[in-house]
Amino acid sequence: MPRRITVITAVHAPSAGFLPEAYASLRAQRLPDGWEWHWVVQEDGRTDGIRPYVPADERVTFRQGRPGGPGVARTIALAQAEGPYVKILDADDLLTPGALARDLAALEADPTLGWATSRALDLLPDGTTAGFPGDPEQGPLERGAVLAHWKANDCLAQVHPATLFVRRELLLALGGWMALPASEDTGLLLALDSVSRGWFTAEPGLLYRKWEGQVTGQAAHVDPGERETRMAVVEARAHALTGLAWRHTADAGAEDTAVLASADAGAVVTPE
């Protein structure tokens, strides 16, 4: 039986119309022999406006639930996740050719890596793309590197959480996405950075759509008071995980190890 990568997409009505393009970018992915993808589309709510845009494909699962924001929708979607890896794909974004295979190759080659990210390009309304400076060099990201950069640059990470590819058991061990109205993906990224080495691929893996209806473009998202509060919780969680001295490693090690393990990936979370 093929090993599976679960691709999780949270969607609400304003972004539903982009789902066919997201699906086309996923369908164009080519994986090594013995691997397959499964797309879980989770509506943040229960409406009649999403299902018409969900493709009729046996590799696609559509679910609905009480509205709670994208973090809640993605975490609920984990109930449908199978296999060793989870990939994030926002409803309005596009994977670039080869993105899934590159993420997979990085983590399959090094079991000490818990997660991977890649370069993201802004997809502008006129169809052109634009990059931005500050990407790290391609290669491993040591634990704490993302948090250090984030703190030194006004809470901006040098890798994009929308490009995340992660070991499923590690994602579950950390409780999924943070219960925040926004920045829930940044919170997860920094939590992963606190317990695990990561990987960055310099080749673009995502086209990050810029459009007037996106959540990150709304006034509430940049409200100074709320942003300060969100960032405080995100940072506190990262420091708490660092202080607990738990880490992701490739081997369970000693008998007294507290293991939150993936038998598929050979990866565990264990106290140092």
Describe the structure in brief.
The protein is an alpha/beta fold. It has helices at 19-27, 70-77, 99-109, 145-152, 168-173, 184-195, 224-244, and strands at 3-11, 35-43, 60-63, 85-88, 94-95, 113-123, 129-130, 139-141, 165-167, 197-209, 246-249, 268-271.
Polypeptide structure, described:
The protein is built from seven helices and twelve strands. It is of the alpha/beta class and 272 residues long. 28% of the residues lie in helices and 25% in strands. The radius of gyration is 18 Å and the shape is globular. The chain has one domain: Spore Coat Polysaccharide Biosynthesis Protein SpsA, Chain A (Alpha-Beta Complex), CATH 3.90.550.10. The strands form two sheets. Strands 1, 2, 3, 4, 5, 6, 7, 8, 9 and 10 form a ten-stranded mixed beta sheet that branches. Strands 11-12 form a two-stranded antiparallel ribbon.
The whole-number mean of residue pLDDT values reads 89
Q: Which structural category fits the helices and strands?
A: alpha/beta
Poorly predicted spans: 252-272
> Sheet with the most strands?
10 strands, mixed
Shape: globular
Following the backbone from N to C, one meets helices and strands in this order, namely EHEEHEEHEEEHEHHEHEE
The CATH architecture is Alpha-Beta Complex
The CATH superfamily title: Spore Coat Polysaccharide Biosynthesis Protein SpsA, Chain A
Count the DSSP helices: 7
| End-to-end Cα distance | 35 Å
Report the helical percentage. Answer: 25-40%
**What is the CATH topology classification name?**
Spore Coat Polysaccharide Biosynthesis Protein SpsA, Chain A
Strand content: 25-35%
Strand count: 12
Q: What is the radius of gyration?
A: 18 Å
> Structurally, how many domains make up the residues?
1
CATH class: Alpha Beta
